[in-house]
Amino acid sequence: RGIKQVGGFSSNSPTCLIPLKYLYGNPNESLHCPYLSLGMYASSHAVKVHWGLRPVVMTGYWNDITAATLADMFINTTIPRGKSTLYEFPRDLLRPDLTVFLNTHNHAPDSREETRAPTWRARFTETFLRFRKIKLREVKWFGADNVTETILHLIQDELGEKFDLSI
Length: 167
Fold this sequence. Notes:
Number of domains: 1
Strand content: 5-15%
Largest sheet: 2 strands, parallel
Radius of gyration: 17 Å
Distance between the termini: 13 Å
Shape: globular
Number of strands: 4
């Protein structure tokens, strides 16, 4: 009581698709990528409908899924150049006001990375940072406290005039 709700948090898979996660949530499942793609559109719609003009923090959105897919697809060849249309944000998805790329370098590897090529993380990072026409900020991992403080300052600096972020 007395706490003002400033915004929200969403992830991919959104709540409406959680019942299907047991079928398609496994990265080894053939329909996993289409499931995540559907999740992006469901998340985008949910943010538009339920959150209106309030800020929302979302994980696993278009940039993340697209960068991972491109890093997987082009593992043995050169990734597409920065001018490729693959780096353009889809017109039918809600465009983020700010995208933060948390670059963990070689810290805290994802368990799925153990089965990926050693160059995968570098290719993922390079791909992610090529996205165009989005406000993209890279934050390098130097410990949880540093990252949290840096991201909070970024959000306040980049979005403080657009949204009421006071708590």
